[in-house]
Amino acid sequence: MEISPVFFYLFAGMAIAFSLVTVLKKNPAASAFSLVMVFFAFAGIYALLDAHLIATLQILVYAGAIMVLFIFVIMLLSADVPSFDLGRSHVTLRGAAAGLGLVLLAVLVWVFKNSTPAAGSGLFTVDRVVAAGGNTQVISELMFSQYLWPFELTSVLLLTAIIGAVAIAKRRPAHAAQAATKGVRS
Amino acid sequence: MDSAMFWIPAIAKVALVAIVLLQVVPVMIWVERRGSALMQNRLGPNRVGPLGLLQSAVDAIKMIFKEDFVPAHVMPFYFLLAPVAAVIPAFMSFAVIPFASQIELNGQIIQFQIADLNVGLLYILSITSIGVYAIIMAGWASNNKYALLGSLRSSSQMISYELSMGLSLIGIVMVFSSVKLGDIARAQGETLIQLGSLSLPKWGIFVQPVGFLIFLTSTYAETNRLPFDLPEGESEIVAGYHLEYGAMKFALFMLAEYINMTTASAMCATLYFGGWQLLPGMSWILGQLPLDGMASEWARVAFEAASFTIKVGFFLWLFVWVRWTLPRFRYDQLMDLGWKFMLPLSILNIFVTAFMIYRGVI
């Protein structure tokens, strides 16, 4: 299916504008809110490409879970201190950042100009995916048959990370524990 | 495809859903006020219009003409953005809910559903998960400790119950092996058990009773309704995240809450009570009507929509009923219930469902 150019430019423009806001705003919470809008714009582009599952997961996981956590941390740690403010203008730092940014841009442009796009989308064309029951069905069938082992191993890895996070959060530094007991006694 | 044949039904459906959702709100506020009065043996608003029906309209007019006050200490941009961010997801999530089956018009099949996405359920989960931003934004931009505490409480509650809500829906997805709400509603028309002339339909409630209870409880927490209305608490955090809001900005938060309630009720009806499948007796009445051709088709659609509306109406009433019957939870009880009871129970429900599907029981 052909992407409607109107919607593509709408979402692409949104993504660029909100990315700039994310980088340029000094208030970290405002940056985080604009990053959420960037994720939305990306989800819109994925949906235009008929990748509805990726679009939904983008919102569910990135906008709905990860960014909420980010915003919680920002709000709890430094409510409105502009912690990213480096103070006086560092000319060398800014120059270096701008230079590196331009180099990255040049590399990306060069790559896009010189690489040949893959011929079609291979086995999974839009029509064939729709005929097989849609994105969700095709992906879940593959995930639970051909890619079962990688899928299960990833789950175990994530579970290990969760248990590790809980273990680290549970451990209290020795002096904090002492202070707590002292507080109770006095 | 002829673009007019695509756009006219699409725009008509969007307009219908948006207008009906907006009309549900004042009616529900009236039902809530009169219903609470009924349960507490008093009258409730009964002066404006017949039975006080125009009370909500008058309240809305009052809200519109009230001074649009922005306190000096807030962050104005995010303060004004928060109510908008509450209303938009509330309207968006109704888009995938089917309110009747389909009709063939000039050789084109029209689904009574704005969009039959192949990610249906996941779409609703993802849209409700971003409703949390409005609350965080309101609490943070209000620059007020009560508001911030209220918003933190409310958003951690919503995040906690999202887990058990998502896991309880997995049982439904396993039984009907689809995440498209249209398919799920259609599959519930099948017969589960035939007892003589009585047939029990394969409604979600009969194949997933535990999942339904978990889902229903989670929706009450997700919509911040009693017995889980922890974001507010006069004696602890005053009015919570909407402490600094007044006039139409406050009304928008209320609007979002009631639309979220409607969507939650529609989800309950669609996933567990057959959606637009006709209620017992309605198909008999439909058979008695002397209609043929297109007229009978439209009558069928009207009956399906009416059946869906009755089911949604029941769950909306249940929201009011529960609110004025049960006492509210304490915050630690709420978190214990969510994490130590509902979450393990919903995981157990998935295992039991998988076992029953494996044995061919459902």
How would the blueprint of this fold be written?
The complex is a heterodimer of chains A (186) and B (362).
Chain A: H1 5-24, H2 28-48, H3 52-77, H4 91-114, H5 126-131, H6 135-143, H7 148-170, H8 174-185
Chain B: H1 3-39, H2 55-65, H3 76-92, E1 102-105, E2 108-111, H4 120-130, H5 132-141, H6 145-176, H7 181-187, E3 191-195, E4 198-201, H8 204-207, H9 209-222, H10 234-237, H11 247-272, H12 282-288, H13 294-323, H14 331-358
Antiparallel strand pairs in B: 1-2, 3-4
Helix pairs in contact in B: 1-2, 1-11, 1-13, 3-5, 3-11, 5-6, 6-9, 6-14, 9-11, 9-14, 11-13
Describe this structure in words.
The complex is a heterodimer of chains A (186) and B (362). Chain A is mostly helical and 186 residues long. In chain A, helix 1 packs antiparallel against helix 2 and helix 2 (28-48) packs antiparallel against helix 3. In chain A, 76% of the residues lie in helices and 0% in strands. Chain A has a domain at 1-85: Up-down Bundle (Four Helix Bundle (Hemerythrin (Met), subunit A)). Chain B is mainly α and 362 residues long. Helix content of chain B is 66%, strand content 5%. In chain B, the strands form two sheets. In chain B, strands 1-2 form a two-stranded antiparallel sheet. Chain B has a two-stranded antiparallel ribbon with strand order 3-4. In chain B, helix 6 packs antiparallel against helix 9 and helix 6 packs parallel to helix 14 (331-358). Classes of the chains: A mainly alpha (186), B mainly alpha (362). Chains A and B meet through helix 2, helix 3 and helix 6 of A and helix 4, helix 5 and helix 6 of B.
What's the CATH class label of the domain at 1-85 in chain A? Mainly Alpha
CATH superfamily of the domain at 1-85 in chain A: NADH-ubiquinone/plastoquinone oxidoreductase chain 6, subunit NuoJ
- The end-to-end distance of chain A, rounded to whole angstroms, is 73 Å
Apparent shape of chain B: globular
Give the helices and strands of chain A as they follow along the chain.
Answer: HHHHHHHH
